[in-house]
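Example 718, ligand adenosine-5'-diphosphate.
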Amino acid sequence: MKNIHEILQHHFGYKAFRLNQQAVIENVLAKKDAVVLMPTGGGKSLCYQVPALALDGLTVVVSPLIALMKDQVDALRLNGVAAAFLNSTQSSFEQATITQQIRDNELKLLYVAPERLIGPNGMFSFLKQINVSLFAIDEAHCISHWGHDFRPEYVELGQLKTAFPFVPVIALTATADKLTKKDIIDKLALVSYSVFENSFNRPNISYFIQPKKNHFEALVQYIKQHKDDSGIIYCLSRASTESLAEKLQQQGFDAAAYHAGLERTLREKRQDQFLRDDLKIIVATIAFGMGINKSNVRYVVHADLPKNIEGYYQETGRAGRDGLPSEAILFYSSADVFKLKSFAKIEGNQAQSNIMLKKLDQMAALCETSICRRKYLLNYFDEAAPDFCGNCDTCLGEKTRSDHTIEAQKLLSAVSRLNQRFGLNYVIDFLRGSSTCKPEHQSLKTYSIGKDISKERWKAITKEMLQLQYLQQSDGEYPVLQLNEKSMQVLKGELTVMLTTSTSTSLQPAQQQYTTPEHLHKDLLSILKATRYQLAEEENVPAFQIFSDATLVELATYLPLTNTDLAKISGFGAIKLERYGNSFLDAILDYCVANDLATKINSKTPKRQRKLVVNEKTTDTKMASLQLFQQGTPVTEIAALRNLSAGTIEGHLAHFVFTGQVDVTDIVPKEKIKPIINAVEKNGNLIETGPVKQLLGETYSYGEIKAVISYMRRMKEG
Ligand code: ADP
Ligand code: ZN
C-alpha cells in the first residue's frame, strides 16, 4: 500500500492533513466503515480520495448532483488522478468507454448517482466482477428524512452492506444534527463503524450584522473595497434580486441576478460565469448555491433576513471554502422579521407554523444578541464555544463590556426570592418595585432593589445573562427564570459578570477587519490571478480548480523563484508543478525584478537558477493559536476550533517557547522534559524531530519534542 503522506504531497500538493483527515483515512484503510461530519471546506473529499489512491481497485463515490460530480472529476484529473463519472448526460459510447476503463483497471475513482448504482438498471452485478475498494457516500444527509435535502434514491443505499459486506463504506456530510447522524448509520446499516465529528465552526469567516439603514450605500462601499473578489448577495424575492443587480450594474459593478424564475440556459450561463470568475457578483435567491463548490467566494451578503439559522449558516458557509479570510454580512431590520412572520404561518398546520416561527425568532435573536455571534451560532447547533471569538462584529466592535456583577446579583437574588417560579417580565417588575406585584412579594427584601434602572435596561441585562448562561429559562409557553450553578457562583461573589454597557439595542455598523498576511504582495496577487485565469481558460475549467486563492496568497507572500521552493507551496503537487510551475515562476520573477525585490538575483543567470528571496513564513496562523492558548483553551480544543490537527497547534505553540511567550512546562509534562532533552542530545542536533521520536517511542508526541527543542534553542541562543 502506498504511503498516504506521499499521496497527499504528490497528488494534491498538501503538506499536512487537516483535523481528522488522517484518522478517517487510516480507519478506511483498516477496512472499517466511517461517518464523517465536517463543516463545508473541512476537507471531506480527501478522506476518500486518498484511500482511493492508496488501495488497489476502484473507489465508487455516490454523489447527488451531476454538476458536483463533474467538478470533482475535473479537479482530480488536473491533479493527475484517474477519475470519471457515469450519468445520464453521457452518450452510450462515453459510458461504454468508461466501463471498459474500469474493467482494464485504469480508473481509481468513479462518481455515480445513487439511482445509477442500485435498482433494476443498477451496477451491482458489474461491480461484483471487479475489485471495489471503497464506497464513499457524499452528502450522506440526503438519506435522512430529518435532513433538509431528503432524496428517496439514497435510502436504497442500505443494500450496499448486504451486497458488499467486505467493502468499507464512508458516509460524509456537513449536516450535523443528532437525528440525521443516527439516520445515516441506521439506513446504511453500518455495523462496525466510527464517527468522526469536527467542530462546525468556520474560523475563517467573520460575521457582521448591521442595521438595514442606508444599506445600499453600505453595500456599494463594501464592494468597492472588494472589487477583485467573488461574492454572493442573497435577497428574499426574485424581484429584489433583479432590482438590486440592476442598481449595482448602474454603479459599474459586475453583477447579475439568479433565481429559479430565469430561463434555464440563462441560469446555467450565469452560474458558469460566476464559477469561472467572469462574473464577480451574483445577486440571488436561495435557489443559488446548492452544488456550487467554488472555493474562492470571499463574501456572502444577506440583503434580507434569512428565515432560520440553518439557512443562514449554510448560505454564509459558501464563503471561504479555501480557508482564507472571508466575510458574512447581514443587513437586519425588524420590518423583515414582521414580513417573514406572515410567510411562516402555514394554513391548517399549527405545529409546523410554530416551529417556523420559533426558528425565525432565533434568527432575529442572533441579530439582536450582544454576545459573540459565533458563540450564539455554535451554541444553536449544540456546540460549546468560548465567549470571545475575536472575529465577529461583537468581538471586534465598539461594544465595551464592563463589570455588572452588582446588577447581576440583584437579578439573581430576585429570581431566588421568587422561588424560581416567575418569568422575565414579572421578575423585572418585582425588581423595579411595581405596584402590580403580588402583595406577599412586596414585603420581600429584594422588592424594588432595582428601581434605579429602566425596564428596558433590565431586559437587556437579563437577556445577555441568559445568553451567557448566568441563569436559565424553562421551556414551554410560560417560561420561568431559573438559577444554575453559575448563578450560585455569582451570588457567592465568586464570578465577575461582564456585560455590555450600552443601553441601546440598535446595532452599530460593523467595523471591518481585514486579516491579510503581513508580507502579502497585493499587486502580485492580482497578476497571479490573471495568470491563473489564463491557464483556466486554456484548460476549460473554473480558475479555482487550477489553484485555490490560498495557493496564490502563499505565492504572493513567499515569492518562490525555483522549482524546489515552488514545491513547498501548498497546492503544488507533482503534476501541477510540471504543468503550471513555469508560468507562475515567470510571473513572480518579473514582479520581483520590476520592484527591486530581487536584490540577490543576478539578472544574467538563467531564470530558474537564480537565488531566492523568500520571506520567513508569516506567523498569523501561529498567533491565532497563541491567542486562544493564552485564553486558557486546551490544545485539542484549539485544534477543533481552528480546524487543524493537534500536532499543528503544538507546532505553533512550540514556536512561542522559543520566543519566550509560552513556557515549555505549559505544553510538556514536567517528567517528560528531561528524557526529551537526553534524546535530543543523543541525536546531536536541534533540528530533527523524527529520530528523537524514534528514540522516545509512542508516548511522546512530535509537538512535545518540538517544544523542548525550541526551549533548548532558547537556552542556547540566550
Ligand atoms: P468539503 O467537501 O468538506 O467542503 P473540500 O474537500 O472541498 O471540503 O476541501 C475544501 C478545500 O480545502 C479544497 O480546496 C481542498 O483542496 C482543500 N484541502 C483539503 N484538505 C486539505 C489539506 N490537508 N491541506 C490543504 N488544503 C486542503
Ligand atoms: Zn465573536
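Summary: Confidence is low (pLDDT under 50) at residues 503-515, 599-619.
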